[in-house]
Amino acid sequence: MIPPTARRRRAALGAILAIVIGSGVTGTSYAADSDGPPPVHGPGARVVAAAEPDTPNGPEIGPPFTKTSGVWQVDTTTPTLRNTVTAPSGHKTTATFEVHTTDSGGKPTATVVKLTDENQWGVLVSGEVTAGKPASVTVPAGKLKNGVTYAVRSSGYDATSKVYESDWSPYSTFKIDVPPAEKPYVTFPVAQTTSGIDSLAQTPIEVTRTDPGPVTGVRGVDAGRQCSAPDAKGHKVCIEISRDAPTPEDAAVARRATRQTLRGADLVSWCAAKPDGKDYMNRIEACLKNVGYATLIFVDADELPRFGTATFALSQQIKLYNKKSDTGTDRAEFDQQLTVVPTQIDAATEGVHLTWKPADNCKDCTSSQVQWASNDGLNTTPHWAVGQIGSAYAMTAKTQTIWNGTGKEQFDLG
What we know:
By secondary structure, the protein is mainly beta. 7% of the residues lie in helices and 36% in strands. The chain contains three helices and 27 strands. Strands 15, 16, 17, 18, 19, 20, 21, 22, 24, 25 and 27 form an eleven-stranded antiparallel beta sheet that branches. Strands 4, 5, 7, 8, 9, 10, 12, 13 and 14 form a nine-stranded mixed beta sheet that branches. Strand 1 (16-20) and strand 2 form a beta hairpin. The longest helix is centred in the middle third of the chain and has 13 residues, at 248-260. It starts with a helix and ends in an 11-residue tail after the last strand. 25% of the residues are buried.
């Protein structure tokens, strides 16, 4: 009596014809009506002494790679198909996967589901792996349907000896059952068939931002403000960020400075024409004229008495360069500009020095060092002496950030 495995292999061998190729090595050809595995790697050399690869078990399908009553349960329409091919130790192997529809009883039909256009048989072929290791493929989107049961089989190829397996593995059946999506936080109305927004106009619109929140980057937290650790004399410097000017005098100085500050250095060309005290943006640019005020407070360890304060009005501009024609490279870039206008500096401070440390949570970005400059370009050190207030002493800090990633990424600026 012929064992089932031997009968399976003999039946398949009937479809494989021996031919003689120029080198004298025996090869294989594939009959169009054959049920045997297709020669996806081209004609395979079948050396007499070469051992044929073998795939004794049916493929595994997932995620989550679990079975119920012998059927693999799959929670995606783009599942992973995997199987292990045996071959001589150290050889490289691949696996070819063929998916079929099933009948009402879950048995495979003769209908093959075309999974790819990369070969005439519509089968998926794995990359090379070491013999005895699982070889896998991922089914592309749009090929399989939710709620449907399929059958899949695979066949091995010894890439080292260039020998095909002459038969398929047993079938495995799997059912796709994609769980319903979680209820969204926000439900949007049906999309319009046409947009009322001119995609080329890039019209800036006024926006409302949230409160800037606590300042980061300084050490320690005191009530109502962020403070440094005390120095050897017990002195500390604290910073408070506010939307509104601390005093009417600060607001008046800031208004005059905004109108008088040199506009040629603006990162966003249309920002100067927008009203002060508001924020604006379009798809690739932001003009933030309502960042607020930063007040430095120099105090003793117990915060009393205050022996000096200094206040600065802040505004910011951001510009995205997302085309090669903008930057001259294949990488996306965004630039930031922070303008600082001193509105008040107490004599007791004996001068103030500021440092801007931009931050982001980008996974793959490279940023340049911050460069400071005064309106006339003569001063590049962000230091202000007592009495140096108003537009004549405004300084602008700029930094460039290159995104080195691919695809898309969303990140926050700090």
